[in-house]
User: What shape does this take?
Amino acid sequence: MRRAAVWAALGAYAALASNGVAAGEEIIQLIDAPGRELTAASCVTCHSLDYIPMNAPLMSRGSWEKTVHKMIDKFGAPIRPEDIDQILAYLTANYAG
Amino acid sequence: MTFGSSLKMKIFVHDATGSHCERRGNCVLSMRVRTRSGNINMLTRRKWIAASTGTLMLGALGSARGADSSPSANAPDDVLIALPGKKPLIKRSFRPPNFETPLADLRSRFTANEAFFVRYHLAVIPEIDARTWRLRVGGPSTARPLVLSLDDLKRGFERISLAAINQCSGNRRSLFTPRVPGVQWGNGAMGHATWSGVRLRDVLRRCGVLTDALEVVLDGADGAVLPQTPDFQKSLPIERALDENTLIAFEMNGRPLPHFNGAPARLIVPGWTATYWVKHLTDIRVQPQPFDGFWMKGAYRIPTGAFPGARFTSQETPETTPITQILVNSLVTAPSPDARLAHNRPAQLCGWAWDGGTGISAVDISMDGGVNWRGAALDKDLGRFAWRGFRYALDTSRPGPLAIRVRATSRGGEQQPEKLTVNPGGYHDNKILSLALEVA
Assistant: This one.
């Protein structure tokens, strides 16, 4: 179910970027661990998920916290306050240096 | 995921035409990759290098970690992917598209349009029909607004061509110590091209620029997925906008701008970093007050006074100021970083040097850790915004390691520094180059 939701989200945004820009983006798969679907769905609206592994080696919980809040405060990411902890836990456990 | 797992690719070696570096002795050939169907597809750098013998099987690209967790400049797992109209480039991110030019494509004097790097901040990038495209020019500090078609631009103003470096502010960010978040660019978020178009100054003058003009705000057609995300808009000081070398360009290397490099028209700000070179231009606004958009006030800023270069005083605070001019810098294009040089065979060190608009006066090479320096031969000067080729014969008479340092000096007297000036954005990496090669 949750996986289906992620693919639905990916599909929707692939349609948004239907000018071919994101062709091939589906090869990016985040590490399968608790929080993956929520994290993917929160980020993939505005950008491909490769931004996460690209920065992983230099990230910590603190820098992910800064990044997530930048996405919400500066870029208007529609992330619910109650979801932030789970997203941070997933990113810190799987994508920190 | 096993995307593309059974794809076969033909690899063939060709002459890199137009290179400044002679192809003899130890010089390195570049490679071009095509699938049988003619579509250019993806392969990792390791496979690219390993593939020089003929046909390779493209294996599974693996998980996101396998494909993307090694962001350093020459990471073996760099993935090469071709966007429509482009040849395979190093994929940094799919959406927005950020694709870097491989070193092999930086060996020619002018970077090919299809190899030129791609950099976007926001994911919605419309295909624009050049016939219906319009450029709106006006704002409170002009006497009369104008709406121009591409034909109006081409027929109504003097045509100007100039050679200039286009370099992303964050080029080489992945080489920073300590590491800095952001797109993890290696050496290839830059290129060199001849840009053709009209002077921004001539267009603005037709609108009648008023004496209170302070900044010129530039907006392109690319935009964000969400309405609340700040649109990518930049501003220039009025003096820089009225500089005779600031252009609205519609051609790159004699051909219409590629879609992913800003078709049908983009701004050219020679000597300044590419953040100001707004693509897919739609609106130009002259105004009497500082522009307060996010991409000026919240991004592309450096510590005030930390670097040389033009000041942008209307955007400056005591703490930070916008990045402006490109700093003097150099790039070695051959031998490649992992080359082993044959004992007693001629070998040339080749590359490019450039700066923010004074031109290059010298490139010096040290073989002893920076104690003694000798001048490299410089290629002809293509103009003060162009990069300049350099060549230096390497001594291969003794087997063993070669520790090489490369340092460019500008006509303005700036020189590549020993050390990086650390800054939060990861900008302006122009430290002296260090290369380790092996003679065997």
